[in-house]
Specification:
The chain is an all-alpha fold and 379 residues long. Among the domains are: 1-94, Leucine-rich Repeat Variant (Alpha Horseshoe), CATH 1.25.10; 97-190, Alpha Horseshoe (Leucine-rich Repeat Variant). The protein has helices spanning 2-18, 22-35, 40-46, 52-64, 69-78, 81-94, 100-106, 112-125, 131-134, 143-154, 162-171, 175-186, 194-201, 211-222, 229-235, 241-254, 260-266, 272-283, 290-294, 302-312, 320-327, 333-346, 352-360, 365-378. It is elongated. It starts with a helix and ends with a helix.
Amino acid sequence: MDWLTGSKQGEIRKLISGLADPAKRDHAAAELVRLGEEVIPPLLSALQTEDANLIQVYQQVLARIPAAMPPLLRELETSHPLIRNHIVGVLEIRKDRAAIPALLNALKGEYFTVRSRAALALADLGDPGVIPALLPLLRDKEDEVRIAACDALRRFDDPSTFDELTDLLLDDPKIEVRRHAIHALGDGKHPAAIPFLMEALRDSFWWYEREQAAADLLNVIGNMGSGVVEPLIEALADREGTVRKFAAIVLGRLRDSRALEELGMALYDLHHEVGQAAAEALAQFGPAAVDILFGSLHHAEPGIRLNAVYALGKIQDARVVPALIEMLEDPDHHVRWQTVTSLGQLRDPRALPALQQIAAQRADRELSTLAKQVIATIQ
């Protein structure tokens, strides 16, 4: 009967080869599933390929074989780590909670790639009972495992995990790990996460020479919505200028009226970037911010006047253009330049006579040239 067995194995190998051909794939997959348990060893062996697309095909076929679970779980404990990874992928596809004990055991395994993949597979199964087993992975020596643990816990959005996630958020030496922790905390928009997110905002590790990480943090904080407005208003008084600046930026995105008055005060911040951020934030409030910005147009500090003029140039309101026309007489060259630019952005014909006067002046050729360009955009 050896010839019969050999013939059967040859048929199986031929069917597995057929999976590589899109024209034959559906038929080959259906036949392999029909043959059942005897195709599992050669399919597991085929997982050693370096072709990522084929690996996914093999995994899909294995996931469809009802008898595959026992041998898959055995191989998860004994096979090469690369194969173990792919087996976890099969278990993810099957979404069979019978795999939970084996996956929990894999979390304690020797190979960090398997630990990572098992954590994500457990999250896919959606059983919150696995959370206690995932928490120790937040302290794993491997970055990839800590990241996977964050991603897995993010799917549960359980406030009981927030304290330990915050340890990573504030103490992990790798910014990439922290970025995954911030999403694990904030993506569920749970109000209990807000104090932890505000702690991160005050941690310079997040934003000192890390522009992309800071942007990620601000997006997560902003997505928390109205619940974060009051903590951000408090942050406008933080002793660190960068924290005040970031608070103003996020408040501008939220456009909550509770922040208007405090952002108006931030216009006068001694830290130039804070005042600039406050002006840009107020501009996003539109007409509601006009009177506040008008109040700083005659401040003694040119930078404050310039920021106000800049912000007003972004607000479509009938009151703005007359006020900006007056600012064309400002004693500071940079303020006058920004005023011309802002009038150009508004494109209001009421500004044309004043701009034409600027264009006719030869004393300041650069400003005259700019005025001519702006006039051309309005006419």
